[in-house]
Known about the structure:
43% of the residues lie in helices and 16% in strands. It is an alpha/beta fold. Strand 12 and strand 13 form a beta hairpin. Helix 8 packs parallel to helix 15. Residues 1-36 have low confidence and may be disordered.
Amino acid sequence: MTSNAKVRCLCACLGLTLAAFFLGGCASFSWQSAGSDLPVLDQESMHADTPQAIDKELQQRFVKKSEAAKAMFSHNGDGRLVLHHKYGTTILPDQPKRVVVIGMEDPMVALGAPMVAAHDRPDSYLHEALSAQGVDNVYINDSTNTINLEQVQAEKPDLIILRDSYDRNAYVALSKIAPVAAFDLQDAETSLLAIAITLGQPERGDERLRQYYDVVKQARLAIKSRIGNSSVALVRVLKKEIRLYPYPGNAINRFMYDLLNLYPPPLAVAMGNSKNMALSLEAIPDFQCDYILVSCGYGMSSGENNEAAQRRYESLQADPLWQHVPAVREGHVKEVDSVVWNSHGIIAKEAVIKELRDWLAPFTL
């Protein structure tokens, strides 16, 4: 490395350190161009993409996720199953019949588990499946994230399955209605297995997770056989900023790298464990990437903001700096459904993996 390059690299590192300091733990930081000395992922650290290597890797992952799920449970003095979760512990009912689901609809649908009520929306990717089951809708105020407790109580549940992103007050209020089993939807695989244990059907959880891993394996073989170690990134265009999602620090795109073994661009590697980065125009010349997925908007129930995000993306597409990015020059940019891509859960991930495969490796068996 030349002396000038060393200086640029040092300045880049110092800039990141100062940004992290001044942002005080914020979820994103703004990247300023640091020249060409961005870190590149060592290709030797990538996993092998042979069928045998993938089978071994996914089996090890299955064991790890299974152990994590089982560790969430214990038995009390009466032999009752106890779930340990974010809010505390819950003694679970045996073979619950009336289950209300709030925020964990994806794994419940994936398991084929019956529900009497759940949070459903007409624009949800799960709406068709929930409607087919005749599931009652539990209303949630999107602006305040509050749950209609009267509706939940009217269902007379013997178990409530809750996403643990709600605040403790919601958990306490729901616990006065029925036992609450809370799970982390972002850890989709572990939660899938843990919910199956909660419902007394652990074998169904094992079977469904292996089905998911088969989807992963087939997509990975197809995609990597077509694009090899070409770099792939996810960019999200919002009303006021453009975000690049990192390698591998965000649950939205982590599957691209740790399951599909896709190669990240240097700028995504440089972000480290940050959850996302506000991509300034000054940084775009450093954005050397072969394939780019663009998620434009906020998802469900954000009409005006989604329209503003779309206008911002149209403006970005017209910018000469954006045209400089290799993926843009080669026509390797795909706009994706922000609702599904911003969702968590096995069904959501299977949908986006299929979308990736159809785009990057069409007609590949």
